[in-house]
Design brief:
Layout lengths: L12 H8 L6 E3 L7 H9 L3 E3 L14 H5 L2 H11 L2 H4 L6 H17 L1
Parallel strand pairs: 1-2
């Protein structure tokens, strides 16, 4: 699992290339906000299968596995569990380094449950 912090005013898509650049031979699930041509091309060249629905405004809709897309809820559940931890949700840590360390600790604790 990889975690990265982004500034609050930017979209997570800017970090998607960095986080997914070295993933190979995997299914990558995401919502329609991640339906960018360069990202889908990057995943395809790495041997990954993108399980990302097309943006509704796209002229040609791309097919995706709806059954695998439903499994994306596990990621959403992980973020909901992290948000329950007060120290992380209220961001008491002022330094990004310390905050990211607590995120890693929380991820490990959630994974062990």
């Amino acid at each position: 699992m990889k975690l990265a912090l982004s500034p609050g005013q930017t979209h997570e898509m800017k970090l998607a290339y960095e986080l997914l650049g070295d993933i190979e031979n995997a299914y990558v699930a995401g919502d329609s906000a991640y339906d960018a041509g360069p990202l889908v091309d990057l995943l395809s060249t790495n041997g990954c299968t993108p399980v990302i629905p097309s943006n509704p405004t796209r002229a040609t809709q791309r097919d995706f596995d709806r059954h695998l897309y439903r499994e994306r809820r596990l990621v959403e559940n992980f973020f909901q569990r992290i948000k329950r931890l007060r120290r992380i949700s209220m961001r008491f840590e002022k330094l990004a380094r310390n905050y990211l360390s607590f995120l890693h600790l929380a991820a490990a604790l959630i994974w062990l449950q």
